[in-house]
Amino acid sequence: MYFLLIKPLVPSTPLDVFQWSLLVVASVCIAAAGYVLHAIESVDIDRVNYPNRVVINTHVQEKSAFNLYIALNMVGVGIGFWVSYQLGKPSYATWFILCSALLYLYATSFYKKLLIGNLIVALLVFLNVLTIPIFAIIPMLPAFKGFVVSWIFQWSLGLGVVAFIVSFIREIIKDAYDMDGDYSFGVRSIPILIGIRRTGVLCGVLCVGTALLSFGIMYRYLYTQLPVVLYVLLGIIGPLLYISTRCFSVKHKKNIPFISTFLKGILVAAAGILVLMYFTIINP
């Protein structure tokens, strides 16, 4: 987003390439820390759901993994604070503290709560989409206002909302695959509550709703750009409608991995629209 959208349209952004690189490193470190902590906290559940993929206490000792979690968090939050200070906005460091805190709460308790864990993961994806626009543009808003800034934020929000919903759907459908271990250890999830088939129907409805939302965004902002319209139809809306049919017909756990992977591909396709926009709208 930085090179394809923000830098071409707002060349005077205070966020330089080095600072952008540091923001990426900070985000990766904090996300990795959350993954490590979740692996520690869910090791017993993973022995049931993914017996061949358990790392904690098989390849890495729990104490070493926890030290890695602390180190990754310190690096991520520390870099975030440094970049915020360099931009003259030290309070922006709370953005990284918030993400780290959400990942901690998710790993230690909220992933066992009905819907809360799913919403936290989706929210973190949404926040990740907005990180670069916020750090690149908001510090200069008093001196730079107008259509360009509004357009960038509208697009960032639109992309973030679609990513939020698709991530939320993916988290719910993944819970269907993890039902056995989750049920054994008291995790509350939609599939445990209503069963795999009804979970599939719910995810199918959400996929159709996301396709309609994507069509509305496309019609509102891109209807004059034929290449982008075709990309959205074939790369996002079409796949969402297709995977909705797979969700409606899901009956067994064996159907879940394909749906989960396909939804991840839709997230990648949604990000890919920025490349096409750059070559067709921003720098044709």
TrEMBL record:
For this UniProt entry, what's an example GO CC term?
membrane
Q: Which GO terms describe its molecular function?
A: transferase activity, transferring alkyl or aryl (other than methyl) groups
Listed A to Z, the keywords are:
Cell membrane, Membrane, Transferase, Transmembrane, Transmembrane helix
Presence of keyword Transport: no
Pfam name, any one: UbiA
**Mode of membrane association:** Multi-pass membrane protein
Q: Which PANTHER family match?
A: CHLOROPHYLL SYNTHASE (PTHR42723), CHLOROPHYLL SYNTHASE, CHLOROPLASTIC (PTHR42723:SF1)
Record's protein name: Prenyltransferase
User: What is the scientific name of the source organism?
Assistant: Imtechella halotolerans K1
> Encoded by which gene?
ubiA
